Amino acid sequence: MNKQARQQQTSINSSSSSSYISYYIYNNNTFTTTTTSSRRSSPTTLSSDQYLRYSKMDPSSLSNPQDAKVNSLHLVLDVEFATSRLVGYVDVRSVLQSDSVSTLILDSNNLEISKVTDLENNPINLGAVHSIFGTPVEIEIAEGQRGKNKEFNARVYYNTTPSSVALQWLKPEQTAGKKHPYLFSQCQAIHARSLVPCQDSPSNKVTYSAQITVDSPLTALMSALSTGKKENGDKTVFTFEQDIVIPTYLIAIVVGNLDSRKIGPRSHVWSEPETVAAGEFEFANTEKFIAAGESILTPYIWKKYDVLLLPPSFPYGGMENPMLTFVTPTLIAGDRSLENVVAHEIAHSWCGNLVTNKYWSEFFLNESFTVLLERKIIERLTNNEMFQFESINGFKHLQDDIDTFGHDNPLTALRPNLDGIDPDDAFSSVPYEKGFNLLCYLETLVGVKDFEAWLKAYITKFAYQSITAQQMKDFFVEYFEQLGKKDAIAVVDWETWFNAPGLPHTCCKFESKLADTAKELAKKWISTKGEGFNNDSEFKQFNSAQIILFLDTLITETEKEKLSVDVLEKIDNLYKLSETKNSEYKNKWYTLCLRHGIQKIEPLVVKFVTSQGRMKFTRPLYRELFKVNKDLAQSTFKTHRHFYHSICSKMVAKDLALE
Ligand SMILES: CC/C=C\C/C=C\C[C@@H](O)/C=C/C=C/C=C\[C@@H](O)CCCC(=O)O
Ligand SMILES: [Zn+2]
Question: Domain boundary residue among 253, 284, 301?
Fold first, then answer.
């Protein structure tokens, strides 16, 4: 046997408690497998010492871009609906950062890795499993291949497993068309490692390309340009190219029976044929949003901006996957009233996708700038009133989340310590809204004109990079000192803004007459107990932000002194809230009713939380239901848990004390 023929590679069944290693022996162009339990000395669980050793740069990753920096990935994968697996390999190209580097470490989670090859026949060693961060894949670099600035390339053969968190596999009956299966991914924050072995840290940016084989007539799309489509028997092979560097959490894939409609010069909406017309109508303002973003910041660099309208279990409102934003169907209100989510995802084209948080603990760098730009885009297309109003509603959301987490909870700081913490557990509106308040505060200190010039300079300076909050702060201070505004910005207490838990210590004042009107109507209902209300004349003039604030005000203002069932029924009779199709109104109305013990709302709540899996709605509503009817909440979730994306079912299970 020559050297290549003796090639032995390992595969660890990491999901099994009694791990085994399969040795693949290459002979006569085939691989045979032998299994042993004696060759694996590493423990099955990563100790905290080992975790610290692996995660020394980024606490959310066990990989080592500081030693061997991965620059590109090439994925070659077959999409196997029958086994709910992606099967194939990834070519990983890295550059060694010093002479002493002897290992390339990738993140993986719930993957089965069968072998690693390179020209030098290097061995692979899978590390122990960490329950949150997965299994480090250590690839030894042969002595002859070591050396600063040398390229090191490896091919990792692997398959995903049904436990790969990034992926949700839908059966035909779970789709709108009921005929074809469907697959989609959600990689943010740390789930790309369950789709492909990679350095899954936002500190490291890569380009990627892919060749994806699917059953005909299904279509595959990725967060990349489509570069080809070839029929091959009963299969279709799609190729993709993303040549702009991105963090791995922006790798995305969808496979399904997909149709598209053009909605702008650089945009299509994609979805199952049954829903594409609704998407075409709802997201018709896409180009206006992109153009407004360009007028505020810099030219849009991502060549195209498509929107994918997903099946209802998609766990978020939207996900800013480059070139192909993923959105929930709960945005389909029929009147474009929830289109600000598209403006938000477009804003990520600059904030997050171009300038990226280096660590998840500084997620506010992505989200606060995005919320600010989203609101500036809406402002440019409407008026300042809408900017103010959305900021008021956002602050309410922040108050609710801080109440839920607890005002002293360290996770309510803008820069929480995420060592050993699952980013999904830390997720809240804090990075969005508290971060937005910081930026608004900074804007009031220096003035809108200069602040917007700084925003443009910030994006230009840090484009294509991953940065820290310290870099953002330093650039702000340096920029405004040079502009002669040293005194104006000297008052900023950065330490408190960044690290103190709870609500912002300095609050911006947002004012809107429309908001006042909505609050007044709610307060009038409370003070009069519904006396004198005979029609919906005031309510029917409200825009969606007003309806949300009206309901929010009823919720907060009746915390101590509840309304009677009769008053709530009168509100419902006049405003038809139980009949609404708008997901945001449902969320608020159902919360209000559950908090008032209106039992007849429970079937509607159950219907809503089992017909869509957007965590913004499912998590709080399950929690509310749990408070009033624990059995119903738990049994509903148990019956429907496989409907949800696994990120959502993981979080709801925790919320309902089922873990
Ligand atoms: C402070 C650090 C907290 C978290 C770290 C980062 C990511 C958290 C992870 O759970 C992923 C989040 C993905 C979010 C995607 C889209 C959101 O903007 C949607 C917001 C809610 C909604 O509208 O449904
Ligand atoms: Zn966002």
Answer: 253
Residue 493 lies in a domain: yes
SS3 95: strand
Strands 205-215 and 68-80: parallel
Q: Are residues 120 and 195 in the same domain?
A: yes
**Position in ligand 1 atom list of the atom nearest CA 315:** 24
Instruction: Check whether 219 has a pLDDT greater than 80.
Output: yes
ipTM > 0.95 for the complex: yes
Residue 589 domain-assigned (yes or no): yes
- Look at residues 115, 154, 104 and name the one whose alpha carbon lies nearest to residue 9: 115
Q: Is 616 annotated as a binding residue?
A: yes
Out of 313, 320, 360, mutate this one to test ligand 1's pocket (max ligand atoms within 8 Å of CB): namely 360
Beta-bridged to residue 241, according to DSSP, are: 209, 225
Cα distances from 187 to residues 20, 190, 250, in angstroms, run: 28, 6, 7
7 inside domain: no
Contact status, residue 338 vs residue 544, Cβ threshold 8 Å: yes
Angle between helix 364-381 and 469-482 (nearest 10): 50
Average pLDDT over residues 160-179: 97
Is 264 annotated in a binding site? The answer is no
Q: Is residue 37 part of a domain?
A: no
Structural domain of residue 110, as residue ranges?
A: 43-170+179-253
Q: pLDDT for 580-598, tens place per residue? A: 999 999 999 999 999 999 9
Q: Are 296 and 377 in contact (CB under 8 A)?
A: yes
Question: Counting atoms of ligand 1 from 1, which one is nearest the CA of 617?
Answer: 24
- Catalytic residue (choose from 89, 432, 458, 585): 432
- Neighbour tally for 144: CB within 10 Å: 8
The pLDDT confidence band at residue 119, using thresholds 50, 70 and 90, is low
Q: Which of 205, 237, 253 is the last residue of a domain?
A: 253
Residue indicated by tokens 């309901």: 551
CB proximity list for 60: less than 8 A, separation 6 or greater: 133, 189, 190, 200, 201, 359, 360, 418, 423
345 is a catalytic site residue = yes
Give the tokens for residue 297.
């910041």
Q: How far apart are CA 213 and CA 195, in angstroms?
A: 15
The two tokens of residue 582 are: 């708008």
CA distance 180 to 254: 13
d(CA 162, CA 126): 20
Q: Is residue 523 within 8 Å of 557, Cβ to Cβ?
A: yes
How does pLDDT run across 341-396, given as a tens digit for each residue?
A: 999 999 999 999 999 999 999 999 999 999 999 999 999 999 999 999 999 999 99
Structure tokens at 246: 């991105």
429 alpha carbon – ligand 2 mean position (Å): 10
Number of domains in the chain: 4
Give the integer Cα–Cα distance in Å for 159 and 367: 32
List, for residues 121-142, the tens digit of each pLDDT value: 778 888 889 899 999 999 999 8
Whether 364 and 378 share a structural domain: yes
Q: According to the model, what pLDDT value does residue 42 have?
A: 41
Ligand 2 centroid vs 368 CA: distance in angstroms?
A: 8
Give me the DSSP letters along 271-322.
Answer: E-GGGHHHHHHHTTTHHHHHHHHHHHSS---SS--EEEE--TT-SSSEE--T
